[in-house]
Design goal:
Elements lengths: L5 E6 L2 E5 L2 H21 L5 H32 L4 E7 L2 E6 L6 H28 L7 H21 L7 H14 L2 H28 L3 H31 L21 H12 L3 E6 L2 E7 H5 L11 H4 L8 E2 L5 H11 L3 E6 L2 E7 H14 L2
Parallel strand pairs: 2-3, 7-8
Antiparallel strand pairs: 1-2, 3-4, 5-6, 8-9
Helix pairs in contact: 1-2, 2-3, 2-4, 3-4, 3-5, 5-6, 6-7
C-alpha cells in the first residue's frame, strides 16, 4: 500500500515503520508550531525556544499516533486478526491489516480503540496542564503539554468522523454489518459516505485556497483526495476478496512458468531472463525440482564485471513460506500473502516440485472480468 517504508523499531511484537512522506509532514508540523501556534499563544519567548517547542511537540505527536495505532493493533491481535505492522505516512499512521475483521463485534472494538487511546492521552496531558503551575513547569513546557492534550483530542475527533476507512467509518460499518448481517452491503454504504466526506473536504480546501488560506486549503484538499480514494479502494478490495472466495490457486496459476537452471551464469540470467521477462524473482529448478529462488536484489550485491564468474546456483536461496503456496489453497489466501509480504508473484509447489506460478496481475484480470460480466 505504501511502497518503500523504513523500519524504525519493534513494539509489543509490531513493526513500526515510516514512509518517506512522513518527513514532509514532520517538517511542516515543526515549522507551523515554531512560527505560528506557539508564538501566537505564548508570547515574548526566544526564537530558539519556539523551535525547541516545535520539535518536542512534533515528537509528542509522532508518539501519540503510534499509541493510537498500537491500540488498534492490540485489539486486532486479541480477536486473531493479523496486523502486518504500523506505518507512519503523509496523513498520519495506519495499522496495516491483511484481512477483514471476522465479525462486526471485532470491527467495532478494534475501530474504537484508537480514538479511546487518543482521548485518554489528551485528558492526561490536559490534566497535567490543569493541576500544575509555572512554579513547577516553565511556560514552554506548559505550552507543549497543552498542545499535546488538545492535538490528541482533535486526533480522536477527526478519526471518529463516520467516513470509511476512518475509525468512525469503521464503527459505522460495524453497526450496519450487525444490523443487516451483510459485510458487502455495510462496506458499500460506509465507503460511499467516506467518499462523500472526501469530496466535501476537497471543496472546503478549494474554498480556503481561493479565500487566501493557500496552505490550509491545499492540506484540506489533499486529505479529501486521500479519503476519497481510500474509501473507494477499501470497497474494491473487499469485492476482490469476495470474487476470489471458493476459487483455488490452481485455477489461476501458470503451469509453464519461466524457470532458470542453477548452472546459468548471472550475466546470462540478467540478459536472457531479467531484461526479457521483467521479473524480480525467478524459481531455480534442477531436474524438475525446485531448489531455490534468485532475485534481482541478490544480483545487485555482485559487481557487474563479475557476473560472468558466478552462477545462479551460488546465489539461489531456499524459497520461504512467504513466496510459496500449494495449488489447492484458496485464492484469497494467495492474495493475503501477496499483500502481507509485498509480493506480486508466488511459487506454486507440491511435494517440493514447482507446478506453477500465480501472479497478482492474473488475479486482477479475473476480478475485472467478473465485475464486467456480473453485478
Amino acid at each position: 500500500m505504501f511502497g518503500t517504508s523504513y523500519r524504525l523499531f519493534k513494539l509489543l511484537g509490531f513493526e513500526v515503520k515510516v514512509h518517506p512522506s512522513w518527513l514532509i509532514i514532520a517538517v511542516l508540523i515543526v515549522w507551523s508550531l515554531s512560527k505560528g501556534l506557539f508564538p501566537h499563544y505564548f508570547k515574548d519567548l526566544p526564537t530558539a525556544t519556539y523551535w525547541w517547542m516545535g520539535v518536542v511537540g512534533a515528537i509528542g505527536l509522532f508518539l501519540s499516533i503510534i499509541a493510537h495505532e498500537l491500540s488498534h493493533s492490540l485489539v486486532a491481535r486479541k480477536f486473531g486478526l493479523p496486523i502486518k505492522g504500523i506505518t507512519l505516512f503523509l496523513f498520519g499512521g495506519v495499522a496495516e491489516m491483511t484481512e477483514e475483521p471476522p465479525s462486526a463485534k471485532s470491527e467495532f472494538f478494534m475501530a474504537i480503540a484508537g480514538p479511546i487511546a487518543s482521548i485518554a492521552i489528551g485528558i492526561f496531558f490536559l490534566g497535567i496542564n490543569f493541576v500544575t503551575n509555572a512554579a513547577l513547569f516553565s511556560k514552554p513546557i506548559h505550552g507543549v503539554i497543552s498542545y499535546l492534550g488538545f492535538i490528541n483530542i482533535l486526533l480522536a475527533g477527526f478519526n471518529l468522523l463516520p467516513a470509511f476507512p476512518l475509525d468512525g467509518g469503521r464503527v459505522l460499518r460495524s453497526a450496519l454489518w450487525a444490523w443487516k448481517k451483510n459485510l458487502k452491503w455495510a462496506t458499500h454504504i460506509a465507503s460511499r459516505i467516506g467518499s462523500g466526506f472526501g469530496v466535501a473536504l476537497i471543496i472546503l480546501g478549494v474554498l480556503n485556497f481561493f479565500s487566501g488560506n493557500i496552505v490550509g486549503g491545499m492540506w484540506w484538499a489533499l486529505i479529501g483526495m486521500f479519503l476519497y480514494s481510500a474509501s473507494k479502494m477499501s470497497y474494491q478490495q473487499l469485492l476482490m476478496r469476495r470474487a476470489l472466495e471458493g476459487e483455488t490457486v490452481s485455477s489461476f496459476m501458470r503451469k509453464d512458468p519461466v524457470t532458470v537452471s542453477p548452472s546459468l551464469s548471472i550475466e546470462e540470467l540478467v540478459k536472457d531472463y531479467v531484461y526479457k521477462f521483467h521479473f524480480k524473482m525467478f524459481p531455480v529448478v534442477d531436474q524438475s525440482k525446485l531448489v531455490g529462488c534468485v532475485t534481482t536484489k541478490q544480483i545487485k550485491e555482485i559487481p557487474q564485471d563479475e557476473w560472468s564468474n558466478h552462477t545462479v546456483g551460488e546465489l539461489a536461496t531456499q524459497c520461504s513460506n512467504e513466496n510459496t503456496i500449494a495449488p489447492d489453497e484458496d485464492a484469497t489466501q494467495a492474495l493475503k500473502m501477496m499483500r502481507r509480504n509485498d509480493n506480486s508473484r508466488l511459487m506454486v509447489t507440491q511435494n517440493n516440485q514447482l507446478v506453477g506460478v500465480i501472479s497478482l496481475k492474473d488475479l486482477l484480470k479475473f476480478f475485472a472480468l467478473k465485475v464486467e460480466l456480473e453485478d
